[in-house]
Protein backbone atom coordinates (compact mmCIF):
# COMPACT_ATOMS: atom_id res chain seq x y z
CA UNK A 1 0.00 0.00 0.00
CA UNK A 2 1.24 3.49 -0.80
CA UNK A 3 2.38 5.80 1.97
CA UNK A 4 0.17 8.86 2.46
CA UNK A 5 1.03 12.11 4.24
CA UNK A 6 -1.84 14.21 5.59
CA UNK A 7 -0.83 17.63 6.98
CA UNK A 8 -3.04 18.79 9.83
CA UNK A 9 -4.36 22.34 9.58
CA UNK A 10 -4.70 22.37 13.37
CA UNK A 11 -1.07 23.56 13.28
CA UNK A 12 -1.66 26.06 10.45
CA UNK A 13 -2.37 29.78 10.69
CA UNK A 14 -6.17 29.92 11.01
CA UNK A 15 -6.20 33.47 9.64
CA UNK A 16 -4.70 32.19 6.36
CA UNK A 17 -6.27 28.78 5.90
CA UNK A 18 -6.66 28.99 2.12
CA UNK A 19 -2.98 29.91 1.72
CA UNK A 20 -1.93 27.26 4.23
CA UNK A 21 -3.85 24.64 2.26
CA UNK A 22 -1.95 25.63 -0.88
CA UNK A 23 1.38 25.52 1.01
CA UNK A 24 1.23 21.73 1.26
CA UNK A 25 0.67 20.91 -2.40
CA UNK A 26 1.81 17.35 -2.94
CA UNK A 27 0.14 16.09 0.23
CA UNK A 28 -2.35 13.25 -0.22
CA UNK A 29 -5.06 14.70 2.01
CA UNK A 30 -5.55 17.77 4.16
CA UNK A 31 -6.38 16.66 7.69
CA UNK A 32 -9.07 18.78 9.35
CA UNK A 33 -9.53 18.43 13.11
CA UNK A 34 -13.07 19.21 14.25
CA UNK A 35 -13.45 19.62 18.04
CA UNK A 36 -16.54 20.58 20.01
CA UNK A 37 -15.15 21.35 23.51
CA UNK A 38 -17.21 18.43 24.85
CA UNK A 39 -15.69 15.20 23.55
CA UNK A 40 -12.29 16.88 23.87
CA UNK A 41 -11.35 20.02 25.85
CA UNK A 42 -10.79 22.22 22.82
CA UNK A 43 -12.91 24.06 20.25
CA UNK A 44 -11.75 24.41 16.66
CA UNK A 45 -13.95 24.60 13.57
CA UNK A 46 -17.04 23.13 11.97
CA UNK A 47 -19.05 22.63 8.82
CA UNK A 48 -18.76 26.19 7.38
CA UNK A 49 -14.95 26.11 7.50
CA UNK A 50 -14.88 22.67 5.87
CA UNK A 51 -17.13 23.98 3.10
CA UNK A 52 -14.78 26.95 2.59
CA UNK A 53 -11.67 24.76 2.55
CA UNK A 54 -13.26 22.41 0.02
CA UNK A 55 -13.65 25.40 -2.31
CA UNK A 56 -10.11 26.66 -1.64
CA UNK A 57 -8.07 23.54 -2.39
CA UNK A 58 -7.94 20.61 -4.76
CA UNK A 59 -6.40 18.45 -2.02
CA UNK A 60 -9.13 16.17 -0.64
CA UNK A 61 -10.22 16.78 2.94
CA UNK A 62 -9.78 14.18 5.66
CA UNK A 63 -12.07 15.30 8.51
CA UNK A 64 -11.35 13.92 11.98
CA UNK A 65 -14.39 14.50 14.17
CA UNK A 66 -13.54 14.76 17.86
CA UNK A 67 -17.13 15.50 18.75
CA UNK A 68 -20.03 14.05 20.68
CA UNK A 69 -23.07 12.60 18.91
CA UNK A 70 -21.05 11.59 15.85
CA UNK A 71 -24.02 9.63 14.47
CA UNK A 72 -25.90 12.91 14.01
CA UNK A 73 -23.14 15.18 12.76
CA UNK A 74 -20.72 13.08 10.70
CA UNK A 75 -22.88 12.87 7.53
CA UNK A 76 -23.00 16.67 7.36
CA UNK A 77 -19.24 16.76 6.83
CA UNK A 78 -19.59 14.60 3.73
CA UNK A 79 -22.16 17.07 2.43
CA UNK A 80 -19.73 19.91 3.26
CA UNK A 81 -17.12 18.41 0.93
CA UNK A 82 -15.02 15.98 2.97
CA UNK A 83 -13.67 13.01 1.05
CA UNK A 84 -13.01 11.04 4.23
CA UNK A 85 -14.79 11.34 7.56
CA UNK A 86 -13.43 9.86 10.79
CA UNK A 87 -15.68 9.40 13.81
CA UNK A 88 -14.54 8.18 17.21
CA UNK A 89 -15.62 4.74 18.37
CA UNK A 90 -16.13 6.27 21.80
CA UNK A 91 -18.61 8.81 20.39
CA UNK A 92 -20.68 6.65 18.03
CA UNK A 93 -23.81 4.84 19.18
CA UNK A 94 -24.10 2.76 15.99
CA UNK A 95 -20.69 2.71 14.26
CA UNK A 96 -21.60 0.21 11.54
CA UNK A 97 -24.71 2.14 10.55
CA UNK A 98 -22.74 5.40 10.61
CA UNK A 99 -19.91 4.00 8.48
CA UNK A 100 -22.42 2.76 5.93
CA UNK A 101 -24.16 6.13 5.84
CA UNK A 102 -20.86 7.96 5.26
CA UNK A 103 -20.01 5.56 2.44
CA UNK A 104 -23.49 5.86 0.93
CA UNK A 105 -23.04 9.64 0.77
CA UNK A 106 -19.83 9.17 -1.23
CA UNK A 107 -16.98 9.52 1.28
CA UNK A 108 -14.52 7.12 2.85
CA UNK A 109 -15.58 5.97 6.31
CA UNK A 110 -13.01 5.91 9.09
CA UNK A 111 -13.11 5.15 12.80
CA UNK A 112 -10.68 6.50 15.42
CA UNK A 113 -9.60 5.01 18.72
CA UNK A 114 -8.28 6.97 21.69
CA UNK A 115 -5.01 5.67 23.20
CA UNK A 116 -6.80 3.73 25.97
CA UNK A 117 -9.35 2.12 23.62
CA UNK A 118 -8.27 -1.37 22.46
CA UNK A 119 -8.64 -2.50 18.87
CA UNK A 120 -9.70 -6.09 19.60
CA UNK A 121 -13.41 -5.42 20.40
CA UNK A 122 -13.78 -3.78 16.98
CA UNK A 123 -12.24 -6.57 14.90
CA UNK A 124 -15.56 -7.59 13.36
CA UNK A 125 -16.28 -3.97 12.33
CA UNK A 126 -13.13 -3.53 10.26
CA UNK A 127 -14.69 -4.67 6.94
CA UNK A 128 -17.18 -1.80 7.26
CA UNK A 129 -14.38 0.78 7.27
CA UNK A 130 -12.02 2.32 4.74
CA UNK A 131 -9.54 3.51 7.37
CA UNK A 132 -8.77 2.98 11.06
CA UNK A 133 -7.12 5.80 13.00
CA UNK A 134 -4.92 5.02 15.98
CA UNK A 135 -4.43 8.12 18.11
CA UNK A 136 -0.81 8.37 19.24
CA UNK A 137 -1.59 11.22 21.65
CA UNK A 138 -4.65 12.05 23.70
CA UNK A 139 -6.97 13.88 21.28
CA UNK A 140 -7.65 17.57 21.77
CA UNK A 141 -4.47 19.54 21.19
CA UNK A 142 -1.66 19.68 18.65
CA UNK A 143 2.02 19.67 19.47
CA UNK A 144 1.90 16.78 21.96
CA UNK A 145 4.69 14.25 22.38
CA UNK A 146 4.28 10.91 20.60
CA UNK A 147 3.18 8.02 22.82
CA UNK A 148 5.56 5.12 22.14
CA UNK A 149 3.23 2.79 24.03
CA UNK A 150 0.89 2.95 21.01
CA UNK A 151 3.33 1.09 18.74
CA UNK A 152 2.19 -2.39 19.88
CA UNK A 153 -1.42 -1.34 19.23
CA UNK A 154 -0.48 -0.28 15.69
CA UNK A 155 1.17 -3.68 15.18
CA UNK A 156 -1.88 -5.56 16.48
CA UNK A 157 -4.16 -3.55 14.21
CA UNK A 158 -1.98 -4.28 11.18
CA UNK A 159 -2.08 -7.99 12.10
CA UNK A 160 -5.88 -7.91 12.18
CA UNK A 161 -6.03 -6.13 8.83
CA UNK A 162 -3.76 -8.76 7.30
CA UNK A 163 -5.65 -11.60 9.01
CA UNK A 164 -8.87 -10.57 7.26
CA UNK A 165 -7.21 -9.63 3.96
CA UNK A 166 -8.60 -6.08 4.07
CA UNK A 167 -7.63 -3.09 1.95
CA UNK A 168 -7.92 -0.91 5.03
CA UNK A 169 -5.73 2.16 5.53
CA UNK A 170 -4.11 2.45 8.95
CA UNK A 171 -3.64 6.06 10.02
CA UNK A 172 -1.68 7.48 12.95
CA UNK A 173 -2.23 10.94 14.38
CA UNK A 174 -0.29 12.70 17.13
CA UNK A 175 3.36 13.57 17.48
CA UNK A 176 4.23 12.30 14.01
CA UNK A 177 7.54 13.84 12.95
CA UNK A 178 10.90 13.03 11.42
CA UNK A 179 11.86 11.27 14.66
CA UNK A 180 8.74 9.09 14.91
CA UNK A 181 7.36 8.45 11.42
CA UNK A 182 9.70 5.54 10.70
CA UNK A 183 8.68 3.70 13.87
CA UNK A 184 5.02 4.13 12.95
CA UNK A 185 5.63 2.82 9.43
CA UNK A 186 7.61 -0.17 10.68
CA UNK A 187 4.76 -0.98 13.10
CA UNK A 188 2.20 -1.00 10.28
CA UNK A 189 0.85 2.49 9.65
CA UNK A 190 0.55 3.71 6.07
CA UNK A 191 -1.27 7.06 6.52
CA UNK A 192 0.47 9.73 8.61
CA UNK A 193 -1.07 12.90 10.03
CA UNK A 194 1.57 15.54 10.73
CA UNK A 195 0.85 18.99 12.12
CA UNK A 196 3.75 20.83 13.73
CA UNK A 197 6.28 18.81 11.73
CA UNK A 198 4.83 20.24 8.52
CA UNK A 199 3.43 23.66 9.35
CA UNK A 200 6.26 24.44 11.76
CA UNK A 201 8.80 23.94 8.97
CA UNK A 202 10.18 26.77 6.84
CA UNK A 203 8.97 24.92 3.73
CA UNK A 204 5.83 22.85 4.52
CA UNK A 205 5.78 21.18 1.09
CA UNK A 206 9.39 20.06 1.52
CA UNK A 207 8.54 18.72 4.97
CA UNK A 208 5.77 16.61 3.41
CA UNK A 209 8.23 15.20 0.87
CA UNK A 210 10.80 14.42 3.56
CA UNK A 211 8.27 12.61 5.77
CA UNK A 212 7.04 10.62 2.77
CA UNK A 213 10.59 9.56 1.91
CA UNK A 214 11.25 8.42 5.48
CA UNK A 215 7.97 6.51 5.71
CA UNK A 216 8.50 4.83 2.35
CA UNK A 217 11.99 3.69 3.32
CA UNK A 218 10.74 2.30 6.64
CA UNK A 219 7.82 0.54 4.96
CA UNK A 220 10.11 -1.09 2.44
CA UNK A 221 12.03 -2.82 5.22
CA UNK A 222 9.03 -3.55 7.46
CA UNK A 223 8.15 -7.21 7.98
CA UNK A 224 4.42 -6.56 7.61
CA UNK A 225 4.89 -5.03 4.16
CA UNK A 226 7.11 -7.89 3.05
CA UNK A 227 4.55 -10.41 4.28
CA UNK A 228 1.80 -8.67 2.31
Structure, explained:
This protein has nine helices and eight strands. The mean pLDDT is 96. The protein has helices at 17-22, 47-56, 70-79, 95-104, 151-163, 181-187, 196-199, 204-220, 223-227, and strands spanning 4-7, 30-35, 61-66, 84-88, 108-113, 131-135, 169-173, 191-194. Strands 1-8-7-6-5-4-3-2 form an eight-stranded parallel sheet. Helix 3 runs parallel beside helix 4 (95-104). The relative contact order is 0.16. It is an alpha/beta fold and 228 residues long.
List its traits.
eight-stranded parallel sheet; about 35% helix; about 230 residues; alpha/beta; single chain
**Binned strand content:** 15-25%
Computed over alpha carbons, the radius of gyration is 16 Å
Tell me how many strands there are.
Answer: 8
Class based on secondary structure composition and strand pairing: alpha/beta
Biggest sheet, spatial arrangement of strands: 1-8-7-6-5-4-3-2
Mean pLDDT: 96
What is the subunit organization of this protein? Answer: single chain
The shape, in one word, is globular
**Low-confidence sequence ranges:** none
Along the chain, the helix and strand elements come as: EHEHEHEHEEHEHEHHH
Helix proportion of residues, in percent? 25-40%
Number of helices: 9
How far apart are the first and last residues' alpha carbons, in Å?
Answer: 9 Å
Amino acid sequence: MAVQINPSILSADFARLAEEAQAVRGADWLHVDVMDNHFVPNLTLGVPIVEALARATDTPLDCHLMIEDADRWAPQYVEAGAGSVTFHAEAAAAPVRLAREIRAKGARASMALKPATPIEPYEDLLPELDMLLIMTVEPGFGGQAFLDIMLPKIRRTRELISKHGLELWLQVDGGVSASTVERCAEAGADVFVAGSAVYGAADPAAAVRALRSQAEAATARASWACDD
